[in-house]
Every structure is written in structure tokens, then in C-alpha cells.
């Protein structure tokens, strides 16, 4: 066993070569194919970033139009899929539903089993990117007992999702451009983040040659946890629980207490030992959205004050704990009208692009092998079986 390196949590193991995303955690830098995340968030669109991640370069106008057209053509889901939703309780968590319905897509697209065919991989990737908003919106509609809405392919990716989520068949739904832009920006900020837990899960599942829809379902399951994507839901719940600025010191004290399992949700990161650049854009977007919607959310004041207090506290300074992408996103999503239980499903929707891009990269890599970590065995040495009456 001396031959193996012990690295729990993979803090120092590179599992692959990748040309998609670069993070310099000390500098707080995030690049997709070389482009800084703040530039993409400000100037680009989620469709462009998706193309960039999948293809390697930003599209020209004709390429972008074609890509958007292709994604639009795949937004519908099979009618039979509706019956799957009906099998869930109405109070099912949307992430539980997403694990199920995305995994179930593998039963609808048997052609995707041929993962060595680049064309089949491309179609599966487009299907996944296109159908995630439809499936996530359906999970929400199901939870509130409203009818599912079909996609409207005249709308943008974000606009379509907003309409399927908040629209009703009896009325026209007018997409607010401010919300549409904020939604699109949130999607960009979540699109990819190199070898995080869920992406590594997708790669590991995919390394056995499994169906891509099943691999993405595995990624969704991993993302759900509060240490990962589930932190956006947990962060807003925590901020609401704190409620008022005067209660912040109590929670800071709890976060620092080693006998208390409580952590500041939306704080800290395995790779960033500096401000998460996504959190910066997120905080700025929260200010813009709340201003434009004329919403004043006391939770936003709590979040800003909490950040200020934590960033001046020796515990957080020493451990280099800063707000991460999940700290401010919930404030925006809540202002838009999403319940907290939908937050992680939105993360999954956007991260699907990164997952499929990484999955494609892995399968195209000649060095690709089935992922198979080793272990340091700590159990008993060989011994003889003892019959039950002798134990
Ligand atoms: N509040 C209080 N203390 C913390 C926190 C926090 N949020 N995060 C880390 N620490 C402490 C931790 O107790 C440990 O202290 P010590 O060295 O004394 O034992 C030290 O900082 C290092 O923490 P770690 O758990 O060893 O670090 P990690 O790289 O394994 O974990 C993390 C990273 C993100 C899981 C962790 O910071 C955390 O649990 N944060 C809260 C959950 C969260 O916001 N997750 C979202 C991550 S970002 C994007 C995403 O994936 O969604």
C-alpha cells in the first residue's frame, strides 16, 4: 500500500488535464478558456459561454445564432416524462425530482449510449442544456400545483425559463429584461468551476462509459449537498434565521466555536483563499436587481454586515475564508420570486453546461481511463470463518 498516495478530499491530486477553466485561488481569479469571469458576466450571455465551454472559442454571430437555434429545438421534453413527476409527493425537494427525471432521460435517448460517436455526444449535450430549464420549471410548477408550461422558443434561454416558472397558461407572461439579464448572469456565474465535487462525479461516472443523462443525474446528486451547491439554499436560510444585524455576532461566535458544527454558509472555499470573483459579481448584481425591482430585503443588509464583520475577524482572516458564489445568489433569486428549495436546482441547470463540456473533454482525451482510486486498507488481516454458533 506504500505505493499509493493518501489524499482524502483530493486536496493535492490532479485527476485530469483540462483546458476549460482556470482558477488561481490565491489571486481570486477565474477564467473560462482564458476569459475572466467578470468580463463574461458583464458582456457575454449564457448561450455564448456555453458555446465557449463546449467548443473552445467564442462564437461569431452566425455560430451563435445556429447554436441558439439548436438549443431551442431541444427544449421540449417527452410527454411521457410528465407522468414521472406525478409519482412524486408535491412537497418533494426539487433536487430529488431533478435526480430522478434527468436520470430518467437516459431511458428516452438510447442513441446516447454510443458515447464514442462525437455527433451523439454533441446531441446529448445539447439535449441536456436545452431540457434542464424545462425540467427545473416543471419541478417548481409541480410543487405549487400549477400546470406545466411548454417552452416558448421565441424567448431567450433565461426568458424561457422565467416564463415556464412564473407564467400561467391563462395569461401572457412578459419577461422583465432586468430579471432576464440577472438570471442569465447567474447562469454564467455557475456554468463551470473545474474539478469540483459534482464535476468530478460526472467525470467518474462517465469514465465507465455510462449514459450521459445518468452521469449528469449523478452530478446533480453530488451538487445537492450543503458543502457544495446546496450552500445557496442553506446560506439564505441562515441569513433569514439571523434576521437582524444585531444577531450577527452570535452566529460569528458559533462559526468559530470548534465544538459547534455550525459554519457560515456561503463562506469559505477549497480553492479560493481570496475573494471568490463570482461572489463579487453576485453582490453587485444583487444591488442592481433589488434597486431596479424596488425591493428592500433586510436579509441583504444582514449579508453585507456579516461579510464586513467576518472579513475583519482574525479567525476568518487567518483561515482565508471569504464569501463564495452561494453567499449572495439567494438574495437575488429570492427577489425574483424563487423559493429557497429551487436555488440548488438553478445551480444544477447552469452547471449542466460545465458538466457536459467536461464529460466531452474527458471522453475525447486519449489518456482517459476508468476512474478507479486506490485505498489504504485499515481492516483486519486474513482470518478464518467462524460458524454462527461459535461466535
Ligand atoms: N465557517 C466557519 N469555519 C469554516 C468555514 C465556514 N464556512 N469554512 C471553513 N472553515 C474552517 C474549518 O472549520 C477549518 O478550520 P480548522 O482548520 O481549524 O479545522 C478550516 O476553515 C478549513 O476548512 P475545511 O473544511 O478543511 O476546508 P475545505 O476546503 O475542506 O472545505 C468548504 C471547503 C467550502 C466545504 C467549507 O469552506 C465549507 O463548509 N463552507 C460552507 C459551505 C459552503 O459555502 N459551500 C459552498 C462552496 S462554494 C461553491 C459551491 O460548491 O457551491
From TrEMBL:
Family, as annotated: Belongs to the citrate synthase family.
Active site: 269, 326
Gene source species: Flavisphingopyxis soli
InterPro entries xref list: Citrate_synth-like_lrg_a-sub, Citrate_synth-like_sm_a-sub, Citrate_synthase, Citrate_synthase_AS, Citrate_synthase_bac-typ, Citrate_synthase_sf, Citrate_synthase_typ-I
Chemical reaction(s) catalysed: oxaloacetate + acetyl-CoA + H2O = citrate + CoA + H(+)
Gene3D superfamilies: 2.20.28.60, Citrate Synthase, domain 1, Cytochrome P450-Terp, domain 2
Presence of the UniProt keyword ATP-binding in the record: no
Residue spans crossing the bilayer: 327-350
GO CC annotations, alphabetized: cytoplasm
This protein's UniProt keywords: Acyltransferase, Membrane, Transferase, Transmembrane, Transmembrane helix, Tricarboxylic acid cycle
One MF annotation (Gene Ontology) recorded for this entry: citrate synthase activity
GO biological process: tricarboxylic acid cycle
SUPFAM superfamilies: Citrate synthase
Protein's name according to its UniProt entry: Citrate synthase
Recorded metabolic or biological pathway in which this protein acts: Carbohydrate metabolism; tricarboxylic acid cycle; isocitrate from oxaloacetate: step 1/2
PANTHER family: CITRATE SYNTHASE (PTHR42871)
Amino acid at each position: 500500500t506504500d505505493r499509493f498516495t493518501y489524499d482524502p478530499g483530493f486536496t493535492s491530486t490532479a485527476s485530469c488535464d483540462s483546458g476549460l477553466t482556470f482558477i488561481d485561488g490565491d489571486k481570486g481569479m477565474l477564467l473560462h478558456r482564458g476569459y475572466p469571469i467578470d468580463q463574461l458576466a458583464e458582456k457575454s450571455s449564457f448561450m455564448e459561454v456555453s458555446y465557449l465551454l463546449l467548443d473552445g472559442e467564442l462564437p461569431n454571430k452566425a455560430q451563435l445564432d445556429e447554436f441558439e437555434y439548436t438549443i431551442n429545438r431541444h427544449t421540449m421534453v417527452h410527454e411521457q416524462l410528465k407522468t414521472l413527476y406525478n409519482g412524486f409527493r408535491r412537497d418533494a425537494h426539487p433536487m430529488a425530482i431533478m435526480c430522478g427525471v434527468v436520470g430518467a432521460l437516459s431511458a428516452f435517448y438510447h442513441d446516447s449510449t454510443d458515447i464514442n460517436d462525437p455527433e451523439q455526444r454533441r446531441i446529448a449535450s445539447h439535449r441536456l442544456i436545452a431540457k434542464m430549464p424545462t425540467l427545473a420549471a416543471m419541478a417548481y410548477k409541480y410543487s405549487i400545483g400549477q400546470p406545466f408550461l411548454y417552452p416558448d422558443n421565441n424567448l431567450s434561454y433565461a426568458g424561457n425559463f422565467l416564463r415556464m416558472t412564473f407564467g400561467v397558461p391563462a395569461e401572457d407572461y412578459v419577461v422583465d429584461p432586468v430579471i432576464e439579464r440577472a438570471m442569465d448572469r447567474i447562469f454564467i456565474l455557475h456554468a463551470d468551476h473545474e474539478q469540483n465535487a459534482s464535476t468530478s462525479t460526472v467525470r467518474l461516472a462517465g469514465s465507465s462509459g455510462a449514459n450521459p443523462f445518468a452521469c449528469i443525474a449523478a452530478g446533480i446528486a453530488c451538487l445537492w449537498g450543503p458543502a457544495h451547491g446546496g450552500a445557496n439554499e442553506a446560506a439564505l436560510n441562515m441569513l433569514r434565521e439571523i434576521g437582524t444585524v444585531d444577531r450577527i455576532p452570535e452566529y460569528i461566535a458559533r462559526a468559530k466555536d470548534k465544538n459547534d458544527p455550525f459554519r457560515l454558509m456561503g463562506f469559505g472555499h477549497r480553492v479560493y483563499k481570496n475573494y471568490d470573483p463570482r461572489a463579487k459579481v453576485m453582490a453587485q448584481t444583487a444591488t442592481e436587481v433589488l434597486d431596479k425591482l424596488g425591493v428592500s430585503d433586510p436579509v441583504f443588509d444582514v449579508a453585507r454586515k456579516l461579510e464586513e464583520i467576518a472579513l475583519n475577524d482574525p479567525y476568518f482572516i487567518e483561515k482565508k475564508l471569504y464569501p463564495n458564489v452561494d453567499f449572495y445568489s439567494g438574495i437575488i433569486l429570492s427577489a425574483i420570486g424563487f423559493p429557497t428549495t429551487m436555488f440548488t436546482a438553478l445551480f444544477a441547470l447552469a452547471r449542466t453546461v460545465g458538466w457536459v463540456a467536461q464529460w466531452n473533454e474527458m471522453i475525447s482525451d486519449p489518456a482517459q481511463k476508468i476512474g478507479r482510486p486506490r485505498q489504504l486498507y485499515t481492516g483486519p488481516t486474513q482470518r478464518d470463518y467462524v460458524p454462527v454458533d461459535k461466535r
